[in-house]
Amino acid sequence: MKTVYLHGQSIRLTKEIGAGQEAVVYDMGNGNVAKIYRQSNDPYYTQSPEEQQAAHVRISMHQKKLTMFPRGLESNIISPRELLTDKQGLVVGYTMPFITGAETLLTYGDIHYRESMNISNNEIRDIFVNLHKTLKSLHNHGIVIGDFNDLNTLIKNQQVYMIDTDSYQFGSFMSTMYTEKFVDPLICDIITKGKESFWTMTKNHNPLGDWYAFSALLFKTLLFVDPYGGIYKPKDSTKRIKQQLRAHHRINVFNPEVVYPKHAYPYNVLTDDMIHYFKNLFDKDNRGEFPIKLLEDMHWQRCPVCGLEYATSHCPICTVGVKIFAPVAVSGNVQMHEIFHTDGVILFVTLENNKLMYLYHQDNGYKRENSEIVMKGELDRGLHFAINDTTTIFGKSNTMLTHFADGKINKTFVDCVGNKSIFDANNQNMFWIENGTIYKGNPLGLEYSPSQIGQGVADQTLLWVGNTLGFGMYKAGNILQGFVFEMTSKVINDRVVLPFIKGQITDAKCFISDAIIWLMIATKDQSQYINHCIVIDRQGNVLAHIDNSIDNYSWLNHIKGKSAFANYLFCPTDEGILRISFNSSGKLESKLFVDTEQYVNEQSKLIVSTHGIYVVKRNKIILLAIK
Question: Residue 329: which pLDDT band, with cuts at 50, 70 and 90?
């Protein structure tokens, strides 16, 4: 709970809805939120005197900066509305409108989300046309975004909303924050501290840097790869460098020695003019306002053969010959069977009692694996799903709709974290959270009172279940609190002490076997995006914690699509399916199934069964049997 003052009147802020490096955001109700800055003595900064000093400087600057913030901006620029103070009158934050139902631009660069929601690059084009207008408007008001990234840009109904505007640069107020993936290399350099050399921002942000970030964001969102993504593998091993330093040397995806990610759209799906623009930008350091005509003249279509989107006159993949998988194929020690194919999109897949169950959308209806229509209607991007045997569960915002096989429908109120309705299910039962209380369905049916098995924090608690084991977590201040439970448990074990995770949590996934819980957390910490893996046993003991901030674990490039089985986690990579585990001493062990390479990429979705490994694609499911 936090107490602040608005026009001298005290306000108690109790409902935290987000937190990051610099501030915590609270829901104030009535369509408003409060952004409250972390003070220099915040426990979040305990281990970092540098961050404590930065917080002190930031708050001192905002005493003037927020009072002088430019007025008359477009309504989609979410700027400070009213200032909030402490009891002594010191500015500690501000209010702003609450944009509900929006997704970050980061989400629109996620191929899983885009494919399941049928979002085409034509829609991305229209979004960036709107973003272009917004950026020009900001520059016309003398404002530079500075730290322009895919988390401070929100999308709702193709309209863009700009948040974290208090960090914008105007007048004498310089912006010092940046994001490595999108910052202009021309304002960065390599500096040395002691024995360590690292790449950092050394010059002030400027309007041309904003246009560079705009272009990098467009590139990533169209092609699902950063300009400096992929893996640099020079033939001369002495030329190898850290991933962080590639932008300094302009070693981007156009470099022939960069291995391009398999899941990403090849850049030759772009028009020649667009490719020429990007090469001049990233290779030759040409700068300037992005030419809007390149966007307006870009029209995408989907290839009926390979499913790829392209903006050229014809599919560049099928023109040179595309490899079409037969319903049955053998490669080395792997046999592939096509299990299912749809002209629509696959929305949800799970394994219950070793039986594959799934939900897909086709012909204006939501259908199960037996082809029966569960619900009619167009594809709704706001829905979330779960399956409990023959029962199908739909969630949107604070509503969970349970569709039974006999046609009956039950409506239940549930908590919502971000845009996600909080519930899950397996073949035995359904679990959900309402006002922070964790419920397990009554075996007699939803018309009977459910069991209360624990307490979390309202609209802050996440929940996942496997076949025999469940896991959840919530934030309590700066602490991540975890809990485990078994399907037969009457109460949760909420004594799971999770490691301290720095930065803004942008996503979380959990993969659960009968023995091990693999918790994956994606964060943005200062200038970097960092993914974490926390391994927990069924008693709630943390066995291991690693992240990809130092060591470049390819299986941690993304947190989705993995599958837990026994003591192992199976991960899709561009080299094939990788099986990882931790031995008794906490050391990471791995085995790569090289013969699976042609069937998967690092963005594939895996489900491991005793029959083999299912690979779920946009519109089909295949089964890989490894001999």
Answer: low
CA 122 to chain centre: 22
Rounded Cα gap, residues 37 and 14, in angstroms: 15
Task: Please write the tens of the pLDDT for every residue from 293-305.
Answer: 999 999 999 998 8
Q: Mean of the pLDDT values across residues 496-505? A: 92
Task: Return the biggest CA–CA distance within the chain.
Answer: 73
Whose tokens are 């470099």? That residue is 255
CA distance 565 to 609: 8
Residue whose tokens read 């620029």: 77
Residue 111: other Cβ atoms inside 10 A = 19
The answer to whether residues 106 and 151 touch, using CB atoms and an 8 Å cutoff, is yes
Mean pLDDT on 222-239 = 94
| Total Cβ atoms within 10 A of residue 158 | 13
| pLDDT tens, residue by residue, 584-599 | 777 889 999 999 999 9
Q: What pLDDT score was predicted for residue 328? A: 65
| Residue 549 confidence (pLDDT) | 82
Tell me which fold the domain 328-626 belongs to: Methylamine Dehydrogenase; Chain H (2.130.10)
DSSP β-ladder status, 568-573 and 493-497: unpaired
Each as own residue / partner, the long-range contacts of residues 263-266 (CB below 8 Å, 24 or more positions apart, any chain) are 263/111, 263/224, 263/574, 263/601, 263/602, 263/603, 263/604, 264/223, 264/224, 264/225, 264/229, 265/222, 265/223, 265/224, 265/225, 265/308, 265/309, 266/223, 266/316, 266/317
| 322 has pLDDT over 60 | no
Contact 546, 521 (CB under 8 A): no
* 1-98 classified as CATH 1.10.10: no
3-state SS assignment for residue 580: strand
Average pLDDT, the chain: 93
pLDDT at 320: 59
Contacts 24+ apart (CB under 8 A), 199-208: 199/244, 199/245, 199/247, 199/248, 200/527, 201/176, 201/527, 204/169, 204/174, 204/175, 205/144, 205/145, 205/146, 205/147, 205/169, 205/174, 205/175, 205/178, 206/144, 207/139, 207/144, 208/184, 208/287, 208/288
Per-domain residue ranges of the chain: 1-98, 328-626
The amino acid sitting at 553 is Y
CB proximity list for 386: less than 8 A, separation 6 or greater: 348, 350, 392, 393, 395, 423, 424, 425, 430
C-alpha gyration radius of the chain: 25
Helical segments of 117-236, H only: 121-140, 207-223
pLDDT one-digit tens code per residue, 331-384: 788 999 999 999 999 999 999 989 999 999 999 999 999 999 999 999 999 999
Beta strands at 9-13 and 153-156: parallel, antiparallel or unpaired:
unpaired
pLDDT tens readout for residues 529-560: 999 999 999 999 999 999 988 777 889 999 99
User: Rounded to whole angstroms, how far apart are CA atoms 578 and 561?
Assistant: 12
d(CA 603, CA 315): 22
Chain segment 55-65, per-residue pLDDT in tens: 999 999 999 99
- Give CB contacts under 8 A, 24+ apart, made by 68-76: 68/171, 68/173, 69/165, 69/166, 69/170, 70/141, 70/142, 70/143, 70/170, 72/141, 73/137, 73/138, 73/141, 73/143, 74/134, 74/137, 76/134, 76/159, 76/160, 76/161, 76/162
